[in-house]
């Protein structure tokens, strides 16, 4: 199982096929992913533990366990963990390509390109 540690937390790839990819993502307290978009995939994020503060095309909303955010293709998005507890969510990617090089970062706390 593919696993990667990032400055904001870590993720595991649960499934990777030609039509979709599924990840389990943990965001550390106070951590946030880059504000980004994708050319070749849309995503659905389902919270399973904690609170995810999601920015979607400039609109900020908190999502709780059991709630799902739909990230359309090309939409600018980010998730952060505003709490002192771990945030866990399941990301389902669907589209034509799922490589990490289809991340266009607009803003990043860790100076990644």
Automatic annotation (TrEMBL):
Example GO BP: GDP-mannose biosynthetic process
Gene3D superfamilies assigned: Jelly Rolls
GO molecular function, one term: mannose-1-phosphate guanylyltransferase (GTP) activity
Annotated keywords: Isomerase
Matches recorded under CDD domains: cupin_PMI_typeII_C (cd02213)
EC number: 5.3.1.8
Domain Mannose-6-phosphate isomerase type II C-terminal: start-end pairs: 5-108
Name of this chain's protein: Mannose-6-phosphate isomerase, type 2
């Amino acid at each position: 199982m593919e696993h990667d540690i990032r400055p904001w937390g870590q993720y595991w790839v649960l499934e990777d096929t030609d039509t979709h990819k599924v990840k389990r993502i943990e965001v550390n307290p106070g951590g946030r992913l880059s504000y980004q978009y994708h050319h070749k995939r849309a995503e659905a994020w389902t919270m399973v533990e904690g609170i995810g503060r999601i920015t979607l095309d400039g609109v900020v909303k908190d999502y709780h366990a059991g709630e799902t955010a739909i990230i359309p293709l090309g939409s600018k998005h980010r998730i952060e963990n505003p709490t002192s507890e771990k945030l866990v969510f399941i990301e389902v990617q669907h589209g034509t390509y799922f490589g990490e090089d289809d991340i266009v970062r607009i803003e990043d706390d860790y100076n990644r390109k």
